[in-house]
């Protein structure tokens, strides 16, 4: 009898990011496409609404600040539009009308473009969090399923946190991804930021000898700038080969 078997392990929904599972225009719209549509349709006036939605979902101060900035710009555009003299057809009239309408357009265009760029990556962060999918793995023993599921869930959280850090480093720092030594509420699945964490934390998370962790911190200090790849650190710090996989599994590199 074969010792292995195929079983679909259900990983907790809050831990697994996934790519677009939707198909068609309506699915795209529901999974964050409305961010872009709303901003385009209102020429940037309602660009603050998607940021408010994201701020309520992700609960970060950075997104709250963005919401306030875009809301303030929207108020300014409304004031300019209200102050623009127009004729019966709604076209601006006179020098004041031309100046104010030009100012409004000059403000609306960059607001809309910048908001769309930021929302493009933000919508993936918001709408891929908290979704589940079945993952098939080979397990030697049915009794081990809960432990396997827990490990897979932690791996998925680490991948989700890495993706978020790559898309929005400022948010990653605010969530303190890779810094288990600091107070935080975000679960990154057990990552450590090799660009900022102390040696003792790196040693604990990556199960390293203290000397190896100290070598990483020393290499970081002598490098003069933040690392961009884990392999770069492994080579410069002269880490033993048998520790490379553990470090790759747990490491994250926050860019800012």
TrEMBL record:
Keywords: Membrane, Transmembrane, Transmembrane helix. Residues 1-20 are annotated as: Disordered. InterPro entries: RuvA_2-like (IPR010994). SUPFAM superfamilies: RuvA domain 2-like. The chain crosses the membrane at residues 33-55, 67-84, 96-117. Pfam families: HHH_3 (PF12836). This is Helix-hairpin-helix protein. It comes from Halopolyspora algeriensis.
